[in-house]
Amino acid sequence: MAAQVKDKEALQRLSFLYQAAHCVLARSPDGQELARFYCHTQRSVSRRLVLRQDPSVKRTMCKACSSLLVPGVSATVRQRRCRRQRWTIVRCLTCGLTKRFLNNPEYKLWAEQPEALLENQPQCDQKSTGLHQPSKEPPAQKGKALSGTLGFQSQNTSEGTTEATRQKGKGDAGGR
Predict the structure, then answer these.
(1) Could you give phi then psi for residue 84, rounded to 5 degrees?
(2) Which family is annotated (predicted)?
(3) Are 75 and 93 in contact (CB under 8 A)?
(4) Better pLDDT: 70 or 142
(5) pLDDT tens, 11-31?
(6) Cβ atoms 17, 44 nearer than 8 A
């Protein structure tokens, strides 16, 4: 049985706005203003509800003016070679912003990798939800070990508190 999606209606709205922007641009290139409005609304809804968008959706939208980047209609796409690597350069015709994407056939986005899927994640117990496992060392010994690695030496005072004093090494200049 599939898990329930938290913001199903919001995700459906985002999908509808993205598809509507594509349909408007497919019918006539004069509909760029309406497509930009749909994309801007999609971006504002996803930011307001803190929803992550798929990388393929983010790659087809301009960050500066929220235009839908369709090659030949609202964007130009070029292949360039730089430092022995091939790059795809997408330039927005509305605002002039350029995006560069590396052409590497072996590269896969994190969202496309099997480790990214929720069902492939290891199940954790309720008890082990903490990320940091405390060490078995007493707090006084931890402070000494930490201060020794940073070039500090701890000394006990009469009240039982510790004060850190800088160790003088061979590299320290005298009179400081």
Answers:
(1) 65, 20
(2) Belongs to the eukaryotic/archaeal RNase P protein component 4 family.
(3) yes
(4) 70
(5) 999 999 999 999 999 999 899
(6) no
**Residue 91 contacts residue 78 (beta carbons within 8 Å):** yes
Tokens read off for 5: 């999606």
Q: What is the pLDDT of residues 107-148, one digit of tens each?
A: 888 878 888 777 777 776 655 555 555 555 555 544 444 444
Find where tokens 């796409």 sit. Answer: 77
Which amino acid is present at 129? Answer: T
pTM over 0.85: no
Return the exposure string of 33-56: e unless at least 16 CB atoms fall within 10 Å of the residue's CB, then b. eebbbbbbbbbebbeeeeeebeee
In angstroms, the CA 137 to CA 158 distance is 24
Q: How many CB atoms lie within 10 A of CB 106?
A: 4
- Cα distances (Å, whole numbers) of residue 85 to 100, 101, 134: 12, 11, 46
How confident is the model at residue 65, as a pLDDT?
A: 96
The helix/strand/coil state of 111 is helix
**pLDDT value for 137:** 52
Which SS3 state, helix, strand or coil, does residue 67 take?
coil
Q: Which residue has the tokens 């349909």?
A: 23
